[in-house]
Design goal:
One of its GO terms (molecular function) is ribonuclease III activity. Helices cover 55% and strands 9% of the residues. It is mainly alpha-helical. It has a three-stranded antiparallel β-sheet with strand order 1-2-3.
């Protein structure tokens, strides 16, 4: 039962008895073994994990793109089950916010950095290394408390890797959602809770909601200045605050944070 699963009452290794084994290529043996230790799961078909750790720039083998497709859906379903049972009094909109916060690109990319998945991914794109290095430094400075985007935009391919590893587990254990959640809940910790979202509402959403209640119109304007994306907030036609970043969405979040800090609503 899924309710029993939430308390982790069983040993995953006892539940899954391998029926066949498939081994990775020689060049990926060490990486596959390392990731198995990270996630605390032994694959029957280790080729699945090899595929999950292969970026599309590495053209000599199948990439994680196909697995990413099912991993996104499987994690979403596992989170849906969890929040539905954990929060029986919340409405669908509130449940959706909790689910989204726990499987967002930001969240999953931070998981990839925290557990060190990227170092085991094979690719032929040197630019990826620079993006991960920059993001990892930001994560190290900011910690796990950032819900809506930190100072550096989360590289989507990091989240894709996490989803692909989830898919590899899901397929390997015969599409058992319970087993997937038992394994992945530990990787997703700390789980973003309803209480955390109440304490840290999404800045853009909160700004619009507060202004709507007060009958004020919000307008967010964007433009570029050199390499920076600038965003400015106008409430009722009046300039309130601006924010800037290399990434448009982060600039938008920063200017809304500034507007809320001005307490003009």
């Amino acid at each position: 039962m899924f309710l029993e699963m939430l308390a982790l009452p069983f040993n995953v290794k006892d539940k899954i008895e391998p029926e066949f084994f498939s081994y990775p290529s020689k060049s990926m043996e060490a990486s596959v073994e390392a990731v198995e230790r990270i996630i605390n799961y032994k694959f029957r078909n280790k080729k699945l994990l090899e595929e999950a750790l292969t970026h599309s720039s590495y053209t000599d083998s199948a990439s994680y793109q196909r697995l990413e497709f099912i991993g996104d859906a499987a994690l979403g379903c596992a989170l849906s089950n969890y929040v539905f049972l954990a929060y029986p009094s919340l409405d669908p909109g509130q449940l959706s916010l909790i689910r989204a916060a726990n499987i967002s690109t930001e969240k999953l990319a931070r998981v990839a950095v925290r557990v060190g998945l990227y170092q085991y991914v094979r690719h032929n794109a040197a630019a990826l290394d620079d993006k991960v290095r920059e993001f990892a430094l930001a994560v190290q400075e900011e910690g796990d408390s950032v819900l809506y985007g930190g100072s550096v935009k989360a590289p989507k391919f990091l989240a894709d890797i996490v989803e692909s590893v989830a898919a590899a587990i899901y397929v390997d254990c015969n599409f058992d959602l319970q087993v997937l959640w038992v394994i992945f809940r530990g990787l997703l910790e700390p789980i973003v809770t309803h209480e955390a979202l109440q304490q840290q509402p999404q800045p853009v959403t909160l700004l619009y909601e507060l202004c709507q209640k007060d009958g004020k119109h919000v307008d967010i304007k964007h433009w570029r200045k050199g390499s920076k994306n600038i965003a400015s907030v106008y409430v009722g036609g009046k300039f309130i605050a601006s924010g800037s970043s290399d990434e448009k969405e982060i600039g938008k979040i920063e200017c809304c944070k500034g507007s809320l800090a001005e307490a003009v609503i």
